[in-house]
Design brief:
The structure is a single chain. The chain is mainly beta and 390 residues long. The protein folds into four domains: 3-11 and 25-112, Sandwich (Immunoglobulin-like), CATH 2.60.40; 115-192, Roll (Ribosomal Protein L9, domain 2), CATH 3.10.430; 194-272; 278-380, no CATH class. It has four helices and 31 strands. The chain has helices at residues 66-69, 147-150, 227-230, 278-286; strands at 3-7, 26-30, 33-39, 42-45, 55-58, 76-77, 84-89, 100-105, 107-112, 114-120, 123-126, 136-139, 151-152, 156-157, 164-169, 174-175, 180-185, 187-192, 194-200, 203-206, 216-219, 231-232, 236-237, 244-249, 254-255, 260-265, 267-272, 307-308, 321-326, 361-366, 377-380. The protein has a four-stranded mixed β-sheet with strand order 4-9-7-6, with no helix packed on it. The chain has a four-stranded mixed β-sheet with strand order 11-18-15-14, with no helix packed on it. A four-stranded mixed β-sheet has the order 20-27-24-23, with no helix packed on it. Strand 6 and strand 7 form a beta hairpin. It is rod-shaped, with a radius of gyration of 58 Å. 21% of the residues are buried. Residues 276-390 have low confidence and may be disordered. Residues 35-110, 116-190, 196-269 form the MBG domain. This is MBG domain-containing protein.
């Protein structure tokens, strides 16, 4: 061990008789060996726990071990958790052996930046609507940090307002902390089609006249668009010219813009009968197909007839009366204008039966001479170029 040890004569002796030996001793001094402790360089990511502070030992002698000559204390480091370089100090590490002098050589703990992941959320909007907020998810926060405390600014997206897919970019989103590296992962804003509602207008016309323009109302236009900019073509309808109702169809009306989805709601074109006049009834009375009226009956009174003539061209009826009214109407209905003259002559005052829609005209004829209490009814829809529902 370290110390001073006397140097004795030992077995040193003369082998000559010519001398007397006078011995003067001295000392052997054992000095401390130099024990070198060199701290290992260390690194960690911001926010992680410190690694163990280890070291290398050199200069051990006589079979000594580090555990036998060192007190088991630990190294320490300069305080701090932000990104940077921090010295590793001897701390509580010391010797338990007096045979060594300890030479400590420090090193550094380097704290590196943590990776902060920012992942943009996928977004969608309908054409013409305002953009949604461009939000994101954050992972990799350390040491109790919040996104709001280390990030500033916002995302942006590729320009465009038409239907399509637009990339969401990092924009002005940046770090305010030096403890992170930012890894940005983008996403997309998808603009979907807006619903354009087209409602056909109900239309009507009198039979035999030209169709009215088939018009429509539009709702759901966006971004200042007009119907003329996004639609082309016109509506159509189910064919037919007889009195009745016909569906108004989308026809050739179509979108010229890819920003909309068209929702069409149809309507009806009503073909209405022309008014029936006493003159029209005269035409009816002259038609040859009234010969089908081979049986007749006496009206309750001649005044029930709204049109009477002695010239009804039907060889099977003598001095006939003709009464016309709308199907489904009681002949005593006040909407029927009865004739006032009792004789078998045309009654101009009868004027017209009325204006009933969607009902065929019913004609009843009777012979003044026979077939009493027998009747034959015929329904006429367009006997004379006018529908007879009124």
């Amino acid at each position: 061990n370290v110390g001073v040890y006397g140097i004795n004569q030992g077995d040193l002796a003369l082998n000559s008789g010519n001398y007397d030996l006078s011995y003067q001793g001295n000392n052997l001094t054992i000095t401390k060996a130099l024990l070198n402790v060199i701290a290992d360089a260390k690194t960690k990511v911001y926010g992680d726990a410190d690694p163990s502070l280890t070291y290398q030992v050199s200069g051990l002698k006589n079979g000594d071990t580090a555990g036998a000559v060192l007190n088991g204390g630990s190294l320490s480091r300069v305080a701090g958790e932000n990104v940077g370089v921090y010295g590793i100090n001897q701390g509580g590490l010391g010797l338990v052996s007096a045979n060594y002098d300890l030479s400590y050589q420090g090193n550094n703990l380097t704290i590196t930046k943590a990776l902060l992941n920012v992942i943009a959320d996928a977004k969608t909007k309908v054409y013409g609507d305002a953009d949604p907020s461009l939000t994101y998810q954050v992972s990799g926060l350390k040491n109790g940090d919040s996104a709001g405390s280390i990030l500033t600014g916002g995302l942006n997206r590729d320009a465009g307002e038409n239907v399509g897919v637009y990339g969401i970019n990092q924009g002005g989103l940046v770090l305010t902390s030096g403890n992170y590296d930012l890894a940005y992962q983008g996403n997309d804003l998808t603009i979907t089609k807006a619903l354009l509602n087209v409602f056909a207008d109900a239309k009507s016309k009198q039979v035999g006249t030209a169709d009215p323009a088939l018009t429509y109302q539009v709702s759901g236009l966006k971004n200042g668009d007009s119907a003329g900019q996004v639609l082309a073509g016109g509506l159509g309808r189910v064919g037919g010219e007889a009195v009745g109702q016909y569906d108004i169809l989308q026809g050739g009306l179509a979108l010229t813009s890819g920003n909309y989805q068209l929702n069409y709601q149809g309507n009806l074109l009503s073909i209405l009968p022309l008014p029936v006049t006493p003159g029209d009834l005269g035409q009816l009375a002259a038609l040859s197909d009234l010969r089908e009226l081979q049986k007749g009956r006496d009206p309750d009174t001649p005044g029930d007839a709204v049109y009477r003539t002695t010239t009804l061209e039907n060889p099977f009826l003598e001095n006939p009366f003709l009464r016309a009214y709308a199907l489904g109407m009681d002949v005593s209905d006040p909407n029927l204008l009865p004739a006032t003259a009792a004789g078998p002559a045309e009654d101009a005052s009868a004027k017209r039966v009325g204006q009933f829609t969607d009902r065929p005209l019913r004609a009843e004829a009777e012979s003044g001479a026979g077939c009493s209490n027998q009747s034959y009814l015929a329904d006429y829809w367009s006997c004379f170029n006018k529908p007879l529902n009124f």
